[in-house]
Amino acid sequence: MTSDVADDRKTAPAPAPRRLNGTRRPSEVMAALGIVQLGDPMLTAGTRPFDLPAERDEALRILDRLTAVADAVMRVHDFSTGAMGLAAPQIGEPRSIAIFRAHGAPQLALINPQVIEVGPAARTEWEETTEGCLSFFDFRCSLRRPRTAVVSYRTPAGDEQVATFDHGRLARDVLHEVDHLSGILCVDHVDPGAPAVSMA
Fold it and tell me: Among 44, 45, 101, 144, which residue has the fewest nearby CB atoms (within 10 Å)?
């Protein structure tokens, strides 16, 4: 067996089985839209930050791809009760950029994001609930996350911006996207033995 064959097997995980009625599983739908799926090493490899403004054009290229894929996802799934995000590794780009769309708000592009602060300070006061991921859309993870988050990020021109997320699930959802850029998935936060919530 050559290394090329082995690599192909790692980067192309087997598709989830089809449902009995012949419809596609949520993970199959997302894969068809270009979302990298669980098992692909791209999701856990981490990303490289942008040198801005020198890499402005590259950041804008990936931002255009993220926006187009997110638009396609939103045509097949309703996120009107919350938010959705998409990180560059989920479309096969190992760079530090993600987009975040809170319902009713403009899209936010997070380039080289850094979490400055989360709250409350005590983990015991964090909220425990479920969250989903487009890279394994057949199930949701149940985990505890902060209720608020302050995140710094860069614009394509290299200017620093700071955003505070403190309403509803916004902190949870934006921290999920920032995690993706470090190769961390929500399943990595789940306590061993904790059940997943099936969406399939």
Answer: 45
List b or e across 78-102, with b for residues whose CB sees 16 or more CB atoms inside 10 angstroms. Answer: eeeebbbbbbbbbbebebbbbbbbb
Contacts of range 160-166, beta carbons closer than 8 Å, 24 or more positions apart: 162/116, 163/108
Measured CA to CA, the distance from residue 72 to residue 90 in angstroms comes to: 14
At residue 189, the pLDDT reads 85
Give me the pLDDT at residue 2, please: 32
Catalytic residues: 177
Report the first-to-last Cα separation within the chain, whole angstroms: 35
Which amino acid appears at position 71 of this protein?
D
Query: Rounded to an integer, what distance in angstroms lies between the CA atom of residue 170 and that of residue 186?
Result: 15
Secondary structure letter of residue 12 according to DSSP? S
Q: Which residues of the chain have pLDDT under 70?
A: 1-22, 81, 193-200
pLDDT (0 to 100) of residue 67: 97
pTM of the model: 0.84
Looking at residue 146, its amino acid is P
